[in-house]
Description:
- This protein is an all-alpha fold.
- The chain has one domain (3-100).
- Helices cover 83% and strands 0% of the residues.
- It is built from four helices and no strands.
- The termini are far apart.
Amino acid sequence: MDSLSILLSVFDFFLIVAIIGSAWQALKENSDLFRAITLFITFGLLMAVAWARLGAVDVALAEAAIGSGLTGALLLSALSKLREAKLREAKLREAKLTEPEPKKLHSSLNDE
């Protein structure tokens, strides 16, 4: 074996470890959705590199463009909309709690 094939074998090994590690980190119980999305994007880019190493350049380009790029952008957009909705809901709930009670029209109406 020449030094280039040894180097490529080492690269392939670390690529496999990185793919499995990013998939594991993205799928495990995670409360931080932004971190999970960035790990998903990382996984897609690593898969694109793996497809390119296997000689399937067309699949690698599709994975990078659709799998990581478009899907990642849509997930990040959905996350920002979710955070905005939660913020609006919290403000609405806070406004309801601090709203003054309505005043009674006339105290003699309640005495009867």
